[in-house]
Amino acid sequence: MIRYRSVFLAVAVVLAGNAVVLIGVARNRSGGPRALIELTERELLIPTVEEENSGLSLELRWDNRSRRWPHRFEDGPGWFDRRKLEELGYDCRVDPADPAADKHYQRALPIEAFIVLEYEGEAWQQWLAKPPEPPPPRFVEPQQPPDPQRESLSHTRLFAVDVGRDASLLRQKYGDPKRFLITPGHVQLIRESKRDEESGKSVSTYLRGAISEVFVQRIHVPLEHRRALDTFRKESSLTYFQRSPLASLEPRYTVTLAIGARYEPWIVAVRPRQR
Fold first, then answer.
1. Which of 64, 113, 164, 220 matches a 20 to 30 Å C-alpha distance to 211?
2. Measured CA angle at 271 (ends 245, 273), to 5 deg
3. How far apart are alpha carbons 266 and 113 in whole angstroms?
C-alpha cells in the first residue's frame, strides 16, 4: 500500500509540474505576440543532436564581447558603465580605486534584469569595422587564429546593447519589434583593472557591468516546424559554418520568433533559405 501511495504522489508531482508549465505558456501567449523578429541560423543554431533524441531545440547565440580576443580588456566599460550599474540598483558610491573598494564590491550579487538584444544594428556594424588584434603577450596565442572573413559570414548579428529593470520602459525606448529582442537574464557588477601589457601593473580601475546569463538559452522547435529543419539537423550549425569554400556559408534557414507577455519567445515559422 505504501508503495502505491509513493507512486501516486510521484505522478501527482509530475502532473502538477506540467500544469504549472502549461499555465505559464498560456499566460505568456495570452493576447497574442507582443513582437515578431526574424532571425537566421547565425542567431539560432542547430546543436549537436543525439541520435536517440527525437526532439529539437535551437540555441540562441548573441554577443557583447570584443571582436577577436574576448580576453583582451577594453579601455573602459563601454555602454555598461557605472551609471548603468547605479540605474540597476547597485551601490557604486565607493571609488573603484579606493583600497576599500575590493571588500565593498565583493558583496555585489547578480541582479535579475531585462536585456536588449539588437539585430543587425549599430553594434553589429561596429563589430564588423573593428580590425583584428593580436593577443596580448601574457596570453598564449591560439593554434589557429580567427579567420575574419569566415567570422563576418557566420558570426551572430544579435548584440546586447542595453539592460534595465523595467521591461515596458525598454520596449518604449527600443520600439522596433523587428530589430530588438528583450529577454530576462542576470547581470552583475565587475571591478576591472586595466593593466600595462608589458609590466602587468594596473594603470586604471573602473566598474563595468556584465551579462552573466540570458534565461532563454534554447528554444524548443514544435513538431509542426521540425520537418523544415530535418534536412539540416544531421550537421550542427557550428560544423556547417566550418565548411569550405566560404561562399557556401549562407545560413540554411530563417526562424520567426514571437515574443509574449512574459518576454518569452516561441517559434511561429521556420523557412529553409534558397541557396
1. 220
2. 25
3. 20
